[in-house]
Automatic annotation (TrEMBL):
Xref: Pfam families: DHQ_synthase (PF01761), DHQS_C (PF24621)
Classification of source organism: Bacteria, Pseudomonadati, Spirochaetota, Spirochaetia, Leptospirales
Entry keyword annotation includes Calcium: no
Protein name (database record): 3-dehydroquinate synthase
Gene: aroB
Pathway involvement of the protein, from the record: Metabolic intermediate biosynthesis; chorismate biosynthesis; chorismate from D-erythrose 4-phosphate and phosphoenolpyruvate: step 2/7
Coiled-coil blocks: none
Length: 367
């Protein structure tokens, strides 16, 4: 059953992000694509192990052939070295320009399969079936696809939009706990950037409300998709405004990097980074103490980590490698207030050091 749908519009493209109860209905969506020679499902065995039978049921009732390509799970396998094997499998399985790729998984699968689609024979159509909260609210919206190099994440990629996104809500019932943090941190980010009703709703919600699959989950997915697509519509290629979506990510990426992507999930690191951004906003833009308190309370109720445990110098060193670097200051996305973001704000090292030290010693938070 279709629960809700949002249209993502941009320069020369328009596609729906649909939230469905389960996979019943995917068949109709796939059948609506014209002139398809074969479907290529890109997924991993973890997800397939749980959901393959439902997927097969949908695909088998279509009269179009399909083939499943399994890739290894995890960010480290979203690597440029993994592409060749997949391209070869496509060739061997007769993928022509009318083939359609179905990305069936989380953000890693979506980025990787999307990149394959954007390059195979100069681009073939693809659709996304996100199975994680992060992919539903963030990575499946906006058309960024990429693979990693040894020397950096998402260093090779494209802007490539799917035909549609079909999010099956039931997949979230098996999502590991830490994967929930990933999606929740991005939802919180959207709420900080937008303020208003989404923020109010999150403030009266705890983590267990999300796990119990309450209406708030659907509301937050819908609002997040709406918010992110409105930003992408205004600035598809990150010439300006889209940069606000990096809120919390300068510090988040540095923490992920310092801990070699092993200690925290992306969402946990971003969650700490969001708090750094708010504290810097207070120090630089006069963001209020009351707002900080509201954010702390809300993020604690969502069981997102706030306290930094890593060495401050190492974090700052990694920030230096960040794209937003310029001279002796670093550029951040900060907030004047909830709903009032500013991007490209220069912040001196002394201020960053001060805030990170404060956040590290923040025992009161217990996180
Ligand atoms: P992927 O794109 O490979 O799913 P992600 O990093 O986005 O990778 O997902 C994180 C992990 O959660 C992966 O190990 C993935 O296999 C697993 N996963 C994704 N969706 C689900 C789900 N609905 N239920 C259980 N595990 C899932
Ligand atoms: Zn993120």
């Amino acid at each position: 059953m279709k629960l809700q749908s949002r249209q993502v519009n941009g320069n020369g493209f328009s596609y729906p992000v649909e939230l469905h109860e389960d996979l019943n209905g995917l068949k109709e969506k796939l059948a609506s694509l014209k002139d398809v020679s074969k479907f290529f499902i890109i997924t991993n065995r973890q997800i397939a192990g749980i959901y393959e039978k439902y997927l097969f049921a949908e695909l088998k009732s279509l009269s179009i052939p399909f083939h499943i390509i399994y890739v290894k799970p995890g960010e480290k396998n979203k690597h440029i070295d993994r592409l060749k094997k997949v391209y070869h499998e496509l060739v061997k399985e007769d993928a022509d320009r009318k083939a359609v790729i179905v990305a069936f998984g989380g953000g890693v699968i979506g980025d990787f399969a999307g990149f394959v689609a954007s390059t195979y024979q100069r681009g073939i159509r693809f659709v996304q079936v996100p199975t994680t909260l992060l992919a539903c609210v963030d990575s499946s919206v906006g058309g960024k696809v990429a693979v990693n190099l040894d020397l950096g994440k998402n260093m090779v990629g494209a802007f490539f939009q799917p035909e549609f996104v079909y999010a099956p809500l039931f997949a979230l019932s098996t999502l590991p706990r830490r994967e929930w943090s990933c999606g929740l941190a991005e939802i919180v980010k959207h709420a900080f950037l937008e303020g208003g009703e989404l923020l109010n709703r999150l403030e009266s919600t705890s983590r267990k409300d999300f796990h119990s699959g309450a209406e708030v989950l659907r509301y937050c997915i819908d609002e997040s998709v709406r918010f992110k697509s409105s930003v992408v519509e205004q600035d598809e290629r990150e010439g300006g405004l889209r940069a606000i979506l990096n809120l919390g990510h300068t510090t988040g990426h540095a923490i992920e990097s310092v801990t070699k992507y092993a200690k925290y999930s992306h969402g946990e690191a971003v969650s700490m980074g969001l708090m750094t951004a708010l504290l810097l906003s207070k120090s630089v833009l006069g963001f209020s103490e009351t707002n900080i308190e509201r954010a702390v309370k809300m993020m604690k109720a969502l069981e997102l980590p706030l306290k930094i445990n890593e060495k401050i110098n190492e974090i700052i060193e990694h920030m230096d490698h960040d794209k937003k670097k310029e001279g002796s200051t670093l550029k951040f996305v900060l907030l004047e207030d909830f709903g009032k973001p500013k991007f490209g704000v220069s912040v001196g090292r002394d201020k960053i050091l001060e805030v990170l030290k404060f956040q590290k010693g923040w025992d009161l938070l217990g996180r």
